[in-house]
Design goal:
This protein is of the alpha/beta class. Helices cover 29% and strands 28% of the residues. The protein is built from 15 helices and 29 strands. The chain has a six-stranded mixed sheet, covered by helices on one side. Strands 8-9-11-12-14-13 form a six-stranded mixed sheet, covered by helices on one side. A five-stranded mixed sheet has the order 23-19-27-22-28.
């Protein structure tokens, strides 16, 4: 007869400082108070409950950015996760500050792949065993280099290079804990859904990985995706949803006997409020409201950015401001630096910071027409247009192109109404993040690009340029003009 035990595994990912509930029709949706109320309710109703977070607690709200994550850690301490893995935005305030924040956390943070280059000492515990009701649950935290671009600024810190490296590390950890009689193994990843699928396909079944709880790509799933016998789940983004596994574990054979998984909506109809956590958030909000409530500008109308992989109104406005202010021919603005889908018409300091939270310097490169075409073809690769979590760019006024996805070719590319010439040199502005990601984003080599014209840092803050320009001009507007036409 099997020895069966039940486990309820709750999980969130990519919360991004989404602390406050929002009014949607006739109900309050999301927010940490209602999320905490639901988690506490489940902890009272069920015997064995674990709550896990798959990265990106930080960045995306003025409360988080104003206090550099300290507010988030305090709020998360009250929420009480049992285990957390790092996301890429956990390093936005710097690796040193992250290590300080970890000391403030009253919950374990795991990550298998951040290490010091000098002696390969890991910065965090790679895994953690949680014992509950006689069961041993092994959690392993995984990221890969593509999600950790900010770490490239720190010459002392290294990370895995490839998914294959991450798979090898998972195997090593699983093998090392065989003697511990682990009943259930969870990979907490922050690499995106498509990478999770690849990771699952490469896992050796003998390692005993039971589920993958992922993040980074902000995917909302109706049901798990099963690859190589491993269920993969995500819970969208923010605090509007939480994922819930109800699992029966065969503790004799250390495997799942059966499970159900569902995304649970967080709203005031089904989730009680946690008034203690509301008081803490209100204290932070009162401070930020005073600073961030000032009005920067009023746009003609609300501008939108519904997708990262197409031309958007917000993208056009920001790319044009940076082009004009910096005096470059072309500015390529990372779509990922725009973090809202709607902007204005009244723009407050807080609204601007939520829209454009990741401040960066700007660099000027000199690209030939041939290099510019090559860069755009790299940006337009199939995986980017399929919605995978790769970098995509908004282009400034004057540059336009038409791309055929079937033939992977540029049917037309023009600058100021004239065809882009292969030998002509164009000045191109990039954010610092994009410059450091030159090879992956554009398939360009630094030596080749800077052979005749060294790159030059032309501004220390893109956010300051945008804010100053918006503040100077009321009633600004932007419309999608067909700068990027993709067939």
């Amino acid at each position: 007869m099997k020895n069966l035990k039940k486990l309820t595994l709750l999980h969130s990912n990519d919360m991004h400082g989404d602390f406050l509930a929002e009014q949607v029709d006739d109900e309050l949706v999301g927010g940490v108070s209602l999320l905490s109320g639901y988690i506490n309710k489940v902890r009272q109703e069920e015997k064995n409950v674990i709550y896990a977070i798959a990265g990106d607690m930080f960045c995306g709200s003025v409360i988080d950015s104003e206090f550099h994550g300290i507010s988030t850690i305090q709020i998360m301490n009250m929420l009480g996760p049992d285990i957390v893995t790092l996301g890429n935005h956990e390093v936005d305030y710097g690796v040193t500050h992250l290590l300080f924040l970890e000391k403030c956390a009253e919950f374990p943070i795991i990550n298998a792949n951040l290490y010091l280059k000098t002696n390969h000492t890991r910065l965090f515990d790679p895994c953690r065993i949680i014992e509950i009701d006689g069961m041993k649950i092994l959690f392993i935290g995984v990221m890969t280099e593509i999600t950790l671009m900010k770490c490239k600024k720190d010459k002392m810190v290294g990370t895995f290079v490839t998914l294959e490296d991450a798979v090898g590390e998972v195997g090593k950890i699983c093998n090392a804990y065989n003697a511990a009689d682990v009943d259930f193994t969870v990979l907490l990843t922050h690499i995106g859904l498509e990478e999770d699928k690849k990771l699952a396909a490469m896992l050796d079944p003998a390692w005993g990985v039971d589920v993958i709880i992922g993040g980074h790509s902000h995917d909302f799933l109706e049901e798990p995706i099963v690859v190589n016998g491993v269920p993969i789940v995500q819970a969208g983004t923010g605090t509007d949803e939480i994922g819930r596994f109800d699992i029966t574990i065969d503790t004799d054979n250390n495997c799942i006997d059966s499970y159900t998984w569902t995304p649970v909506p967080i709203n005031d109809k089904t989730c009680p409020r946690d008034e203690a956590i509301e008081d803490v958030i209100r204290g932070y909000k009162d401070t930020t409201d005073e600073k961030y409530g000032r009005i920067i500008t009023k746009l003609v109308r609300k501008l939108t950015a519904p997708s990262h992989i197409e031309e958007t109104e917000i993208g056009d406005l920001f790319a044009d401001i940076l082009k004009d202010s910096l005096g470059v021919d072309i500015f390529l603005l990372s779509s990922g630096s725009i973090r809202v889908q709607e902007f204005g018409p009244v723009v407050t300091k807080g609204g601007f910071d939520e829209c454009f939270p990741f401040d960066d310097s700007a660099h000027m490169l000199h690209l030939t027409g041939a290099q510019l075409k090559h860069a755009l073809l790299r940006m337009l690769r199939d995986e980017a247009l399929a919605g995978e979590h790769t970098e995509f760019y908004q282009v400034s006024r004057g540059l336009s192109f038409e791309y055929d996805q079937k033939t992977h070719s540029l049917l037309r590319i023009e600058f100021e109404g004239e065809p882009v010439e292969d030998d002509r040199v164009y000045t191109v502005g990039l954010q610092d993040f994009s410059y450091k990601d030159l090879k992956d984003s554009f398939d360009l080599d630094y030596d080749e690009v800077e052979k005749d014209h060294p790159r030059r840092e032309i501004a220390t803050s893109c956010a300051q340029i945008l804010e100053e320009s918006l503040q100077k001009g009321q009633h600004q507007n932007a419309k999608v003009e067909g700068r990027m036409v993709i067939h």
